């Protein structure tokens, strides 16, 4: 085609477009480009004196058509006449046109073959204007001025990424998008690529080419007009951290497939080309980290509007469609599944079938297991029949055996011989494909419709069969399956345990009995019960179990007696409540936790968007049931709520149960909680309920009125709060007057934490209150409160006058050496009662250590000093060490982390460790100690007079030899613990 073009029309048409200057440049570059393409040289004397027409004749005389075009196109690009290159490409060759036609035919066929019919019809190939604009974003990304780009299409498996890619390719082949941008789009599925031996990119392209030979020169002439689409990247194990030298730049060089793909992605090969990479979220992050100029587009699947449209397309009766949609929305797990087009088809198809049989959709959507059981069993029951054929039962049992082997061996794509080993004959495959439970991935390889379908079939296998009957040794017992599912640290199975327990529900047992003609073994239920009983008897196992997964499993089963036996011994629970389904499930399970001692709640999305809207009755009822646990459980003493948003109705429900005298809670911790209710009612809890002793309100913005109401409650005679934490509550100096009043009048409050508030000058008011004889506080934290050296006189006076304060934390404040000097005037007095002082990261230097020396020598009350992350240096620590060996020094714990120490101070530390009778804890982490210094410390640690019990060291700060030496010393001394900080 190219040859006929050049002979019929000539290159002269294009050369005539060149200016005189461009023609000269063209001739100069011609020799260089011909050499790079490996073409014979045209004599320079002929080229130099040739006119435009003569030059065209020389090109066609010395080169065949494709060669002439290749060299001409490359020179056009070098002289910035890309317009001529593009125009000539379109007019001179039929390869692009033929390739587009081939692509359209191929992907239209893929669309028909590889998608569920109803899903494909819903995503019909016809492109709307709105869709066109969306698809063009993939071929013309925003926020980039570069010709080359990389787009990562991120989405969970089966969300519809491949379908979207097919739409992009079909739209391009139809000329709707991108034809002026790309001459060729090449699609590679990594699931197919990973089976190939070493090959080249040229060979990969030729495998799908529509003609015997690939016009390689034409393709490579304009790499910026190439788009490579890499689908299912997660299926190909590519090392994106390979060195540049291991990658390949030659598209004809044979390499392992992962190396070829990595070379494309990292732009070693065809750096001017563009990429679209479809993958899962975990691989998307790795691509962002390792590739340059990546744009990420997240595929979210169906929103609620799309779900409604899809339901109406499957259920043509509008009333039935609405009824089915509402039933699904009530079950958040099913609603989330319907975000995936394939699973939305599964749910809709199942509901349609059950509604035709007279079933209520709400009953089918009772739990996830119910719907999946109905769908799977119906797929193997011929239309109009009362039950399956023996062949159908055998096919389903074979599928279940295949699914079980896949789950235990982490296999999700199955070759045909693996089907055969599990009892699925070649003749059965067509039938299984018709059910859509099994899909064809590529040549002789198959997968389940979705991972959840595979998990259901695997669970069904364990209910029907003894795992010992399976031919594969990896298929383990029911109790191991359940514990593996519940263990938060092991396999990432999503529904498997829930399906297993759900299939033990009496309704599902009846379905299985009717289908298979026998009652599944009750031994499965007994094994599950025994496993969960072992958890209840072992606290270490309890800490490993994911309570959310356990609750979902038990809810699927819904056997009150069974749930009671499992939940009653549980002492500690963490609940992450994201939706109404979580509310329903946790409210069901928590009522059986009679031994519960600690409960942590996080409620993120229930009322987050409309915090003032009256709550739905179902949500409020479930929330009220959860709150009732606070007063009904006689052992529950610790409640923590974090990162939650409650609207007014939810707040009222919470307050009504917390204020009950029967609520025996002793500790209430609220962190990052938004209470959209009357705050007076919240603080009234601590007046009404005398049992609460510890109150923590952190990361919550409190107004002046809120603080006043709190202080009013604290001042009430029936309030028994002893410890109050108001960390990061946006407090300012204006709030300190109310707090000061409490400190002088409240005889019960012993601990106060005001960390991370902008108190500034308000600290003086607190100090004045604590200087009064009436003050009883013994624990005060003022870390990161913008306390400056100007506040130090007030602090110093308070330390002199106060006889009850035992702990003071002033960390992360800019006190500097001048402020330390003022503090030490009080601290060195023998009657200063402080036992613990934390002044970490306060801007002290070596000079400031001289002020601490008399404190260490003469204050026999001070036991714990944290002075880390200050620039003390070796010289400063030397001063401290001289004081630490003084006979009257009583320091037990000393923090010197991050103080700029080197091994030069280890001699002084050796002296302390071998002479101090009281020092039991020393923190030296984040300092630069070498092997010689560590060796000296180890010698001191082995000294018979050394009393140290805990040494904190930073493992990352030491070489392996030093760390090994420390561990050897630790092993020899059973009373010494070396902690990696």
Give a short synopsis of this structure.
This protein has 981 residues and is α/β, with parallel strands linked by helices.
Structure commentary:
With 981 residues, the chain is of the alpha/beta class. Among the domains are: 2-92, Death Domain, Fas; 95-298, Rossmann fold (3-Layer(aba) Sandwich), CATH 3.40.50; 302-365; 370-547, no CATH class; 844-981, Leucine-rich repeat, LRR (right-handed beta-alpha superhelix) (Alpha-Beta Horseshoe), CATH 3.80.10.10. Helices cover 50% and strands 11% of the residues. It is built from 47 helices and 23 strands. It has a 15-stranded parallel beta sheet with strand order 9-10-11-12-13-14-15-16-17-18-19-20-21-22-23, with helices on one face. Strand 21, helix 46 and strand 22 (950-953) form a beta-alpha-beta unit. Helix 42 (816-827) packs parallel to helix 43. The two termini are 72 Å apart.
User: How far is the N terminus from the C terminus?
Assistant: 72 Å
Morphology call: globular
Cross-sheet strand order for the largest sheet = 9-10-11-12-13-14-15-16-17-18-19-20-21-22-23
CATH class of the domain at 95-298: Alpha Beta
* Mean pLDDT over the residues: 88
Oligomer: single chain
Helical proportion, percent range: 40-55%
What's the alpha carbon Rg, rounded to whole Å?
A: 37 Å
The major β-sheet equals:
15 strands, parallel
Low-confidence stretches: 1-10
Per DSSP, what share of the residues sits in E-state strands of 2 or more residues? 5-15%
Helix- and strand-based class? alpha/beta
The name CATH uses for the topology of the domain at 95-298 is: Rossmann fold
Pfam families: LRR_6, NACHT, NLRC4_HD2, PYRIN, WHD_NOD2
Domain NACHT: 149-353
Keywords: ATP-binding, Inflammatory response, Leucine-rich repeat, Nucleotide-binding, Repeat
Protein name: NACHT, LRR and PYD domains-containing protein 4
């Amino acid at each position: 085609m190219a040859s006929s073009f050049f002979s019929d029309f000539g290159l002269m048409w294009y050369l005539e477009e060149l200016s005189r200057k461009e023609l000269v440049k063209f001739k100069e570059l011609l020799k260089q480009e011909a050499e790079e393409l490996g073409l014979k040289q045209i004599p320079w004397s002929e080229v130099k004196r040739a006119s435009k027409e003569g030059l065209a004749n020389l090109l066609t005389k010395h080169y065949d058509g494709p060669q002439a075009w290749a060299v001409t196109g490359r020179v056009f690009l070098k002289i910035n006449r890309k317009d001529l290159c593009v125009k000539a490409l379109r007019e001179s060759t039929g390869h692009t046109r033929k390739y587009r036609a081939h692509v359209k035919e191929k992907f239209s066929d893929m669309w028909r073959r590889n998608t569920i019919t109803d899903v494909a019809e819903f995503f019909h190939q016809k492109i709307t204007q709105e869709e066109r604009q969306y698809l063009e974003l993939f071929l013309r990304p925003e926020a980039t001025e570069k010709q080359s780009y990389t787009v990562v299409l991120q989405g969970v498996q089966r969300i519809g990424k491949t379908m979207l890619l097919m739409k992009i390719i079909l739209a391009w082949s139809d000329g709707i998008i991108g034809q002026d941008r790309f001459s060729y789009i090449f699609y590679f599925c990594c699931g197919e690529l990973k089976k190939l031996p070493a090959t080249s990119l040229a060979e990969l392209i030729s495998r799908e080419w529509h003609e015997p030979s690939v016009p390689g020169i034409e393709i490579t002439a304009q790499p910026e007009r190439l788009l490579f689409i890499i689908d299912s990247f997660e299926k190909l194990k590519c090392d994106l951290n390979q060195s540049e030298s291991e990658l390949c730049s030659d598209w004809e060089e044979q390499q392992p497939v992962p190396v070829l793909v990595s070379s494309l992605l990292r732009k070693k090969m065809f750096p001017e080309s563009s990429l679209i990479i479809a993958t899962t979220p975990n691989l998307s992050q790795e691509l962002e980290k390792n590739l340059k100029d990546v744009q990420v587009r997240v595929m979210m699947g169906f929103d609620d509007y799309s779900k409604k449209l899809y339901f109406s397309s499957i259920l043509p009766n509008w009333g039935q469609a609405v009824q089915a949609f509402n039933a699904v929305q009530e079950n958040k797990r099913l609603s989330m599944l319907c975000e995936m087009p394939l699973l939305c088809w599964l749910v809709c198809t199942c509901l349609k079938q059950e509604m035709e049989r007279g079933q209520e959709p709400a009953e089918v959507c009772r739990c996830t297991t119910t719907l999946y059981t109905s769908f799977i069993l119906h797929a193997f029951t011929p239309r109009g029949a009362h039950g399956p054929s023996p062949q159908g039962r055998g096919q389903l049992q074979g599928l279940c055996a295949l699914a079980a082997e896949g789950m235990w061996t982490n296999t999700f794509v199955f070759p045909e011989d693996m089907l055969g080993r599990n009892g699925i004959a070649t003749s059965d495959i067509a039938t299984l494909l018709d059910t859509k439970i099994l899909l064809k991935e590529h040549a002789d390889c198959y997968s389940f419709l979705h991972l959840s379908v595979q998990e259901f079939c695997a669970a069904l296998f364990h209910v029907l069969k003894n795992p010992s009957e399976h031919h594969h040794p990896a298929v383990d017992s029911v109790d191991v399956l359940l514990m593996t599912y519940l263990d938060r640290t092991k396999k990432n199975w999503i529904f498997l345990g829930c399906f297993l327990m759900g299939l033990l529900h009496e309704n599902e047992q009846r379905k299985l009995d009717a289908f298979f003609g026998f009652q599944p073994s009750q031994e499965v239920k007994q094994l599950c019960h025994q496993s969960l009983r072992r958890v209840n008897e072992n606290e270490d196992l309890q800490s490993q179990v994911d309570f959310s997964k356990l609750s979902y499993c038990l809810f699927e089963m819904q056997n009150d007696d069974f749930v009671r036996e499992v939940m009653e011994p549980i002492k500690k629970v963490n609940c992450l409540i994201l939706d109404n389904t979580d509310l329903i499930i946790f409210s069901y399970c928590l009522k059986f936790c009679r031994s519960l001692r600690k409960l942590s709640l996080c409620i993120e999305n229930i009322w987050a968007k409309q915090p003032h809207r009256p709550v739905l009755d179902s949500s409020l009822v479930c929330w009220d049931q959860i709150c009732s646990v606070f007063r009904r459980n006689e052992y529950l003493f610790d409640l923590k709520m974090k990162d939650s948003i409650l609207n007014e109705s939810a707040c009222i429900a919470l307050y009504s149960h917390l204020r009950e005298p029967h609520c025996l809670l002793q500790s209430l911790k609220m962190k990052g909680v938004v209470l959209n209710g009357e705050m007076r009612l919240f603080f009234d809890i601590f007046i009404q309920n005398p049992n609460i002793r510890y109150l923590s309100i952190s990361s919550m913005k409190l107004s002046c009125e809120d603080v006043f109401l709190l202080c009013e409650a604290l001042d009430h005679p029936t309030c028994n709060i002893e410890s109050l934490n108001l960390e990061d509550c946006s407090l300012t100096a204006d709030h300190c007057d109310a707090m000061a009043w409490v400190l002088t009048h409240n005889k019960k409050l012993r601990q106060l934490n005001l960390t991370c508030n902008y108190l500034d000058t308000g600290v003086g008011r607190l100090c004045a209150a604590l200087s009064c004889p009436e003050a009883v506080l013994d624990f005060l934290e003022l870390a990161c409160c913008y306390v400056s050296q100007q506040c130090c006189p007030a602090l110093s006076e308070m330390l002199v006058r106060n006889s009850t304060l035992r702990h003071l934390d002033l960390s992360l404040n800019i006190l500097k050496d001048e402020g330390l000097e003022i503090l030490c005037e009080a601290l060195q007095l023998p009657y200063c009662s402080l036992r613990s002082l934390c002044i970490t990261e306060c801007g002290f230097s070596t000079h400031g250590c001289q002020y601490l020396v008399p404190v260490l020598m003469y204050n026999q009350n001070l036991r714990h000093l944290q002075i880390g992350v200050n620039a003390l240096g070796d010289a400063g620590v030397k001063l401290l060490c001289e004081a630490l060996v003084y006979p009257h020094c009583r320091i037990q714990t000393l923090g010197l982390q991050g103080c700029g120490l080197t091994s030069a101070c280890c001699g002084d530390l050796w002296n302390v460790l071998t002479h101090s009778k009281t020092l039991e804890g020393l923190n030296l982490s984040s300092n630069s100690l070498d092997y010689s210094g560590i060796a000296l410390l180890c010698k001191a640690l082995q000294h018979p007079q050394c009393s140290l019990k805990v040494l904190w060291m930073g493992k990352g700060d030491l070489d392996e030899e030093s760390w090994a030496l420390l561990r050897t010393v630790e092993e020899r001394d059973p009373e010494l613990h070396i902690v990696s900080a």
